[in-house]
Design brief:
226 residues, mainly alpha, NTP-PPase_MazG-like_N, NTP pyrophosphohydrolase MazG-like domain-containing protein, MazG-like_dom, Helix Hairpins, 0% strand, NTP_PyrPHydrolase_MazG
C-alpha cells in the first residue's frame, strides 16, 4: 500500500514567499544577493541558532531554525535561477546520503551501539571520498579555534596519537569550572597583548601536522604492512 505524500503547506508557502521576493518586480535587495554575499548571514544565523539552543527557549529556536532554513532555500533559489541545481536536488542528495550512511537501518548491516554506527559511518566516508588520505582532510579550517581544537583532538585520538579521554595537565570535570578557567586564560592573554584565537589556531595547526606525520609513520611501519 502506497503511503500518502507528506503535506507541508507552511514550507511550501515559505518557498513561494522567497520566490516572490526574488522574482522580477519583487525585492531589489533579494534579487541582488549571491551565494558569496549571503555567507555572512549564514554564519550569523547559525550562531544565533546555537545561542537559542543553549538558552532552551522553544520560540527562539523556532525563529532561528527558520532563519537557517531560509538561507538554505535562498541559496537553492539562486542556484536554480543560474541553472546549477534546485532545492529538490539538495533534498534528493541528502536523502540518498542519509540512506547510504545508515545501512543498519535501510540495509542489512548491524550496528547496535552509537560507536558501531560511527564506525560504519567512517568506513562509508572512506569509500565515498577516496581522495581524502588523512583523518584531518575535510575539516573546515575556518572553524572557531576552540571548535577546531576539539575536532582535531578527536581525530588525534582516532589515529592513536594521543588519548583524548586522559585528563591531561589540567583536569577539569565540570563546565562551570571550565568556563571561568578559559576566561581567565583569555584575560591573561589580553593583559599581555596576546591574541588567544591566533595562539590556539597556531597550536592546532601544529597538532594537524603531528597527526599527518603520525599517519605517515604508521603507514610505513612493519606492523602496518603485515
Amino acid at each position: 500500500m502506497t503511503e500518502p505524500a507528506a503535506s507541508h503547506p507552511e514550507l511550501e508557502k515559505l518557498i513561494g514567499t522567497l520566490e516572490r521576493l526574488r522574482a522580477p518586480g519583487g525585492c531589489a535587495w533579494d534579487r541582488d544577493q549571491t551565494h558569496e554575499s549571503l555567507v555572512q548571514y549564514l554564519v550569523e544565523e547559525t550562531y544565533e541558532l546555537v545561542e537559542a539552543i543553549e538558552a532552551g527557549e522553544p520560540a527562539d529556536m523556532v525563529e532561528e531554525l527558520g532563519d537557517v532554513l531560509y538561507q538554505v532555500l535562498f541559496h537553492s533559489d539562486i542556484a536554480a535561477e543560474e541553472g546549477r541545481f534546485t532545492l529538490e536536488d539538495v533534498a534528493a542528495n541528502m536523502t540518498a546520503k542519509m540512506i547510504g550512511r545508515h545501512p543498519h537501518v535501510f540495509g542489512d548491516t548491524t550496528a547496535e551501539t552509537a560507536d558501531d554506527v560511527i564506525a560504519v559511518w567512517d568506513d562509508l566516508k572512506k569509500t565515498e571520498k577516496p581522495h581524502r588520505t588523512s583523518v584531518v582532510d575535510g575539516i573546515p579550517q575556518g572553524m572557531p579555534a576552540l571548535a577546531l581544537a576539539d575536532k582535531l583532538l578527536g581525530r588525534a585520538h582516532k589515529v592513536g596519537l594521543l588519548d583524548a579521554t586522559a585528563p591531561g595537565a589540567i583536569n577539569v570535570t565540570e563546565e562551570d569550572e571550565l568556563g571561568p578557567l578559559l576566561l581567565a586564560i583569555v584575560a591573561s592573554a589580553k593583559a599581555n597583548g596576546l591574541d588567544s584565537e591566533r595562539a590556539l589556531r597556531t597550536a592546532v595547526r601544529g597538532l594537524s601536522d603531528e597527526i599527518q606525520a603520525h599517519e605517515a609513520e604508521s603507514a610505513e611501519s612493519p606492523a602496518a604492512e603485515a
